[in-house]
């Protein structure tokens, strides 16, 4: 293979690696793992086009905008990228979202009639909390499985947590993601800081851990249900497109929960 082709393949691989770091804000799963990203084109001039499609034509506009903007930011962080252009396909406000992200506009400015009461920063924080709690439950249960007692877990420092090795590939994969959120939210920075605290920063008491985990279990089950539903809807939609049908089913009342919005912009 000649040098230009090797360079092109390397750059395409780098783009996919960056896209794998972008998550669906509600599901806390990679947009690539979910199958949302359909195609990546890397130009010789450093322009990158990213084509993606969501499970339904009616998926909430603010979720779609967040993912498109996050894709643009993630890919634009590559030093050789001149411009990253996410292109949402087959969505009720795809044109508005694509234009708004491309021009660097805010969600409220790009889609005024769809803008929620709060800002997108508030929405990001809401889903960051859900992601944090989902990953935290995985870590605590895994530590219990290794024989750690509840008092040890509640007192565990970031340094001690870093030294734990998990045999399960899925748990091992979740460990750095949980750690990243701890630091991103500002809950742990120093080695002696606690590795397990509530999202607001309060310590988790040993006698509170059982009820705390029960609440986290509810968060996880909700996210896993939505994830399974989205995968199913996307599979159906992809089959419809393969058959040449419009791909606008199911309707906004098809059971997609908070992920769907009627054309009026409700979420």
List the helices and strands and how they pair.
Blueprint: H1 3-19, E1 37-42, E2 47-52, H2 61-76, E3 83-88, H3 94-102, H4 107-110, H5 120-145, H6 150-155, H7 158-163, H8 169-185, H9 209-243
Parallel strand pairs: 2-3
Antiparallel strand pairs: 1-2
Helix pairs in contact: 2-3, 5-8, 5-9
Could you describe the 3D structure shown?
The protein is mostly helical and 267 residues long. The protein folds into two domains: 114 residues, GMP Synthetase, Chain A, domain 3; 100 residues, no CATH class. It is 51% helix and 7% strand. A three-stranded mixed sheet has the order 1-2-3. A hairpin with a 4-residue loop joins strand 1 and strand 2. Helix 5 packs across helix 8 and helix 5 packs across helix 9. The longest helix has 35 residues. The radius of gyration is 20 Å and the shape is globular. It starts with a helix and ends in a 24-residue tail after the last helix.
Q: What number of structural domains do the residues give?
A: 2
Q: Are there runs of 5+ residues with pLDDT below 50, and where?
A: 247-258, 260-267
What is the count of DSSP helices, taking H or I runs of 4+ residues? 9
Beta-strand share of residues: 5-15%
CATH topology of the largest domain, by name, is: GMP Synthetase, Chain A, domain 3
Helix content: 40-55%
Report the C-alpha radius of gyration, rounded: 20 Å
Query: How many DSSP E strands?
Result: 3
Main sheet summary: 3 strands, mixed
Brief description of this entry?
This protein is mostly helical. The chain has helices at 3-19, 61-76, 94-102, 107-110, 120-145, 150-155, 158-163, 169-185, 209-243; strands spanning 37-42, 47-52, 83-88.
């Amino acid at each position: 293979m000649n040098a230009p082709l090797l360079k092109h393949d390397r750059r395409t691989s780098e783009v996919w690696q960056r896209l794998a770091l972008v998550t669906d804000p509600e599901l806390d799963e990679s947009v690539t793992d979910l199958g949302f990203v359909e195609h990546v084109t890397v130009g010789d001039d450093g322009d990158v086009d990213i084509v993606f499609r969501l499970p339904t034509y009616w998926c909430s506009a603010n979720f779609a905008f967040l993912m498109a903007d996050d894709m643009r930011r993630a890919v634009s962080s590559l030093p050789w990228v001149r411009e990253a252009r996410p292109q949402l396909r087959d969505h009720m406000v795809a044109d508005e979202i694509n234009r708004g992200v491309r021009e660097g506009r805010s969600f409220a400015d790009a889609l005024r009639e769809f803008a929620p009461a709060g800002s997108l920063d508030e929405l990001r924080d809401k889903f960051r909390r859900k992601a944090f709690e989902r990953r935290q439950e995985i870590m605590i249960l895994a530590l219990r499985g290794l024989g750690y007692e509840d008092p040890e877990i509640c007192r565990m420092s970031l340094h001690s947590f870093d030294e734990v090795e998990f045999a399960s590939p899925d748990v091992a994969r979740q460990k750095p993601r949980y750690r990243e959120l701890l630091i991103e939210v500002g809950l742990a920075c120093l080695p002696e800081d606690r590795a397990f605290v509530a999202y607001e920063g309060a310590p988790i008491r040993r006698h509170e851990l059982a009820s705390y985990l029960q609440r986290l279990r509810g968060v996880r089950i909700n996210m896993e249900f939505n994830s399974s539903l989205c995968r199913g809807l996307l599979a159906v939609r992809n089959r419809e497109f393969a058959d040449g049908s419009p791909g606008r089913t199911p309707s906004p009342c098809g059971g997609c929960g908070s992920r769907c919005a009627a054309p009026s912009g409700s979420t």
